[in-house]
Amino acid sequence: MILRKIKLVNFRNYRNLSVNFSKDINIIIGDNAQGKTNILESIYTLALTKSYRTTNDYNLIRFDQEKFIITGEVKDDKVFKKLSLEMSKNNKLAKINDNNINKISNYIGNLYVILSSPDDLQMIKGSPQDRRNFLNVEISQLSSNYIKKYNEFNKILKMRNDYLKLLLTNSLGDYSYLDILTNNLIQREVDIYIERQNFLKRIDDNITTIYKDITGIEDLNIIYQTNVEFKDFTEQNIISALKEKYRRNQQREIAMGMTLYGPHRDDIMFTISGNDIKIFGSQGQQKLAFIALKLSEIPIFEEKTNTKPIILLDDIFSELDKKKKNKLIHYVDNGYQVIITSNDTKDISKKLLKNANIYMIKEGKIVEKGGESNGRQER
Ligand SMILES: Nc1ncnc2c1ncn2[C@@H]1O[C@H](COP(=O)(O)OP(=O)(O)O)[C@@H](O)[C@H]1O
Ligand SMILES: [Mg+2]
Fold this sequence. Notes:
Layout: E1 2-11, E2 14-20, E3 25-29, H1 36-48, E4 67-76, E5 79-88, E6 91-96, E7 99-101, H2 104-107, E8 113-116, H3 122-125, H4 128-142, H5 144-169, H6 175-215, E9 220-225, H7 235-248, H8 250-256, E10 267-272, E11 275-276, H9 277-280, H10 283-305, E12 310-313, H11 322-332, E13 338-342, H12 350-354, E14 356-362, E15 365-370
Parallel strand pairs: 3-13, 3-14, 8-12, 12-13
Antiparallel strand pairs: 1-2, 1-4, 4-5, 5-6, 6-7, 9-10, 10-11, 14-15
Helix pairs in contact: 4-5, 5-6, 5-8, 6-7, 6-10, 6-11
Bound molecules: adenosine-5'-diphosphate and magnesium ion.
Magnesium ion is lined by residues 36-37, 314-315.
């Protein structure tokens, strides 16, 4: 899929912007705070009707204005679509080919993006909760079963924790009710474990190759860490290991008044040559690991959606050396539409730049455009 064009009216610091993108590499350059990220944010918002940078849509409207409009022209397999999203203080309107779409779920899915944002680096450096959130968000997009089971799991987990607390204070508690809650919990946990394992297994298969392609040598792996040990991720083994774990730790869980084992205690670890990059990795290694993670999701989403997503890479070059910057662009220049932001293109080779469209942004305006005549412009 290709985003041929985007128009912004009163979105963030843009009063009026119209950009044509090439079907291959597009690079948006400019100093800090000029509006580079805002362009990627507008594309993401057009795709999903909400931003990843704010939970308050109102922040997206240009200061002192009433509403914003984002319009995009998408081409997918020879079909053209015009998408638009209009938002005012108390109204959100999504249109496809100028027709109002009332249900958001009928709108989403017409523009697929994969975004690497520096804000998300937290996923690698932050807490296990950050990494579990990442898993939940990504797998939810791929599996409605996951969303269902995960929501049910959370409800039962809360009931079970409440009941464990009750058993602590009330010695006459009914243990058979705890068993029912435990079995209900396990039924949901099985699916969550299996889906997370499948997803991470596929990521791991891809990420090592991608990371090696870009760095030349380093061996990056992603490891799923559960706090219950499983011989393997078959339903039968997961169920019996969980049953055994809860049985053995029943008194401990009652004493603590909470469920100590389960997917709510999962983590994932990124290793380079076996070492945890959260502890031993440089800034550059952590950053590149995150970018490689996003890139390794591409084939997974592509298979699910049957179309090539548009790759949005925000500020990916800082902290990477010249060689890695070029390897990275070279890697993504592979039949995908890519939109990159950067302060400059100074380390990027002429050969790669020749095929790229370059836009220079200053104070919410495009002040210079280059590369287009040489670029493989989409007609
Ligand atoms: N709602 C808004 N209205 C007007 N300007 C905004 C709004 N939100 C953010 N900005 C401005 O956008 C600029 C930041 O844009 P951004 O795309 O993040 O910069 P960068 O080029 O560094 O990626 C800042 O100058 C900020 O004041
Ligand atoms: Mg930025």
